[in-house]
């Protein structure tokens, strides 16, 4: 089986996990004794369709999972299970085209309220749901229209720490459930991850931005102001700041990106970067790769293309059943904007990305072959059909939901979304860095893609490394070597 979720109850007395198998997805529950020894695993729920979870109540009395049984695509309903009897307590579904995400149960024993979020208004909004009573409370805050997600729930059950995204910029808030008051925190700018309530009236958070690498900071819970740096990563050279920009796509949709320019006056040779995904968002983060390009005189733009999260339901779901189309259109629009603004030399624009961003690099090179000077892809998807054959069950389930079926039931979509289908159209040189032991983007699709490209006489170089999907993101020396490969490639193709 392949894991599709794991949870430990806050009380420490229960464990739940989701297993993906060829027969579907199975939710198991294990009680833990006082020494944390697991009891016998019990099967609580099964579905042939994609499930994620579980989320457990304080003492593990209730397990909530996210299910695609109603939708068949990455739109989820919530299903609550009594872990003692196996009975389905309830279901929360917001209707066709909408999706719910469980976040956490109340941290108080006996309090069965679940904190979740829904996109039925068009943006992610928070809510409380009591699976036993069916009571639902939508947390609507006047004046807040940006996508919201919760980070923590205070131990006394009174306060919720959450943040919004507005054009990929985060803003944190504290909501008092008892007083019904909302406090906007005046925290430092940048990308925030894993914030939580800490003792002594503090909030701990990881903070970074384009100019500074990650550090753990203590913030004042009442104001959000930084009180001290708790832990600093090793010092890195200061980076150049990013600018938040938007540009119009071919259908008029506003697309967000982060732009950084090197010293001097443009236009410049330019890198268009695509975040992995889908369902991610590029925030204002510290990126040694971006800074390396800037140091070498390249302009750099990272694009939050269609399919990225936090820009609204329609924006994120536009790609469902049409993977690789709208994302590429947004990348083409990014290039047009860069040239029109005088930032990019038209015949010196290169594409790069890792994982899903690597996939979009391959797709963009083939769908608009005359626009690019070259492509640099890492751990990329090259053939969705072979990817499905070689993937773990959890990833197969997600792929079926994303593309609208299996390779057998939706062969036309698999072909239309696969770079290998359009290999003959590629004109620009391409370098790929791929892992031989990657469970998320298996090696065989890239082996077949490279063989086809070489048979067609295309300019392709593939560097293989021996580890998996994290590769150079977990191994600093390997990451440096990968960036050097890309830099040497860029200098070669640009002359």
Give the topology, please.
Elements lengths: L1 E7 L5 E8 L2 E8 L10 E6 L3 E6 L5 E6 L9 E6 L5 E5 L7 E6 L8 E5 L6 E5 L6 E4 L7 E7 L5 E8 L2 E8 L4 E4 L6 E8 L3 E8 L2 E9 L5 E7 L10 E6 L5 E7 L7 E7 L13 H8 L3 E6 L8 H5 L8 H15 L3 E11 L1 H12 L6 E5 L5 H7 L2 H11 L7 H6 L13 E6 L7 H13 L4 E6 L5 H4 L1 H19 L1
Parallel strand pairs: 23-24, 23-25, 25-26, 26-27, 27-28
Antiparallel strand pairs: 1-2, 2-3, 3-4, 5-6, 6-7, 7-8, 9-10, 10-11, 11-12, 13-14, 14-15, 15-16, 17-18, 18-19, 19-20, 21-22, 22-24
Helix pairs in contact: 3-4
Explain what the structure shows:
- The structure is a single chain.
- This protein has three domains: 135 residues, 6 Propeller (Neuraminidase), CATH 2.120.10.30; 97 residues; 252 residues, Alpha/Beta hydrolase fold, catalytic domain (Rossmann fold), CATH 3.40.50.
- It has an eight-stranded mixed beta sheet with strand order 21-22-24-23-25-26-27-28, with helices on both faces.
- It contains ten helices and 28 strands.
- The model has no long low-confidence stretch (mean pLDDT 95).
- Helices cover 20% and strands 37% of the residues.
- It is an alpha+beta fold and 495 residues long.
- A hairpin with a 3-residue loop joins strand 17 and strand 18.
